[in-house]
């Protein structure tokens, strides 16, 4: 379970790097922060 959360967060962070839409970046940032908190 922990590995899948960390892997999912890495994917979300990669999507953030490949996106130029500010609104989408904000949504992805919230998602990766939630995954980080859940994993910790």
UniProtKB/TrEMBL annotation:
One of its GO terms (cellular component) is alpha DNA polymerase:primase complex. The keyword Lipid biosynthesis does not apply. Residues 1-40 form the DNA-directed DNA polymerase family B multifunctional domain. GO terms for molecular function: chromatin binding; DNA replication origin binding; DNA-directed DNA polymerase activity; nucleotide binding; single-stranded DNA binding. GO terms for biological process: lagging strand elongation; leading strand elongation; mitotic DNA replication initiation. Its EC number is 2.7.7.7. The keyword Lipid biosynthesis does not apply. It is an enzyme of class 2 (transferase). InterPro entries: DNA-dir_DNA_pol_B_multi_dom (IPR006134), DNA/RNA_pol_sf (IPR043502). It holds the Pfam family DNA_pol_B. Keywords: DNA-directed DNA polymerase, Nucleotidyltransferase, Transferase. PANTHER family: DNA POLYMERASE ALPHA CATALYTIC SUBUNIT (PTHR45861). This is DNA-directed DNA polymerase. It comes from Nymphaea colorata.
């Amino acid at each position: 379970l922990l590995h899948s959360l960390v892997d999912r967060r890495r994917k979300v962070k990669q999507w953030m790097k490949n996106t130029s839409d500010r609104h989408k970046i904000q949504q992805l940032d919230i998602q990766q922060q939630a995954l980080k908190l859940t994993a910790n």
